[in-house]
Amino acid sequence: MTNKRSLSEEPRSYHHGDLRKALLEAAVQLIEARGLDAVSVREVAKMTGVSPGAPFRHFATRTALLTAVAEEAIDRLTGEINLSLQAAADENPLLQFRAIGVGFLRWVFANPTHFQVISTRAVINFEGSTLRQRNDVIRTKMTVLMQQAAAAGLLRTGDVGRHQIAARALVYGLGRMYIDGQFPSWELNEREALGESIVILDQFISSIRA
Amino acid sequence: MTNKRSLSEEPRSYHHGDLRKALLEAAVQLIEARGLDAVSVREVAKMTGVSPGAPFRHFATRTALLTAVAEEAIDRLTGEINLSLQAAADENPLLQFRAIGVGFLRWVFANPTHFQVISTRAVINFEGSTLRQRNDVIRTKMTVLMQQAAAAGLLRTGDVGRHQIAARALVYGLGRMYIDGQFPSWELNEREALGESIVILDQFISSIRA
DNA sequence: ACCTGAACACCGTTCAAGT
DNA sequence: ACCTGAACACCGTTCAAGT
């Protein structure tokens, strides 16, 4: 808040100190308030008090702006998953694997619009960013835990790699069904949705457990 | 093709005979060729050879146009599922339930952009259309089959309703992961994706079978 | 170095006027 | 009844010009 403006003047000039950051914050606000489609570079510029062309000094395209939002978002998602993993640090590998799913679901249901930004490829530049690598960190953890679970004889039958994809598709599907508005169809209101989703995950975990 | 134009004239006038249909076809072409975001009412009008305002005589908004596309799409999806169900007519309820999933996956992997139109609520008017009812037809079938499977002692433990949601979330998640470009992460190329997805579904079905 | 503000080629949507 | 074509208020993006 208190930076480069040399003296006590109104914040009316074109010095934000950190326009980049201000633009990202405005974009997040706009997503939260009016949805992903409502995010226009011009509106974000207006909210930040700069001219329509100014954001392009910091983000080459609208996609680049939203990709930056997605990178922030995936960091927070990873954080939530790590919290959940820590809380399960003393459990067996299968329950740690489950904890990843729980962390994912918690974050998605608490931050639906951020999940939308991460998961909707049309709106971000997944490859030309750090998103793939950040995603891979989580996936690698899942793989390791699944293999440990198999090695420890915790799993029933079936292919381990496919159990892993199934688990991923299950929680991803639950999250997408939520943001795609498919839960009302299933006679679940949104308040129960997270709890139900965790129960469903647990039932899946049970069904693959030895 | 041969209708209201009274005599042999160039099709240059504003009589398409069925402009509504022509607009829908153009929209589908555009989605197929350049993706959902590329669908603008103006472009669809241009492809059909009419003025920018003409489509609004048939579809009140861009959303209404895409909702009509979605209604067509869900009919084809239902058709594919029914085909799959017929092929499994002699099987037990659990395998018929599986057949719904297989039909869904087949259709999604063959028509990814149509699936995107159906599933992306932001772009269509789900409630103000017949989409919910058409969706309910399939869901009701799933519910009936699941209950029959339970009654016939075909299921292992767990809550039947939750197995049903899990199955739905699993195939929905696989479909969305596909159109969201998440399969490369899982070291699956797109050609193998359908086959793998069916194997994963089968593994899930196995895990809930008695 | 960073931002302004005009400009360009697009949008969705409306509506008087034409046939 | 159905379509045209101009108009309005928006877009994303570029770029000379200002500070």
UniProtKB/TrEMBL annotation, chains A, B:
InterPro entries the record matches? Homeodomain-like_sf (IPR009057), HTH-type_TetR-like_transc_reg (IPR050109), HTH_TetR (IPR001647), MT1864/Rv1816-like_C (IPR025996), Tet_transcr_reg_TetR-rel_C_sf (IPR036271)
- Indicate whether Transcription regulation appears among the record's keywords: yes
> What's one Pfam family the UniProt record gives for this protein?
TetR_C_33
- Tell me one GO molecular function of this protein: DNA-binding transcription factor activity
Q: Where is the HTH tetR-type domain?
A: 17-77
Q: Which domain of life is it from?
A: Bacteria
Spell out the protein name for this chain. TetR family transcriptional regulator
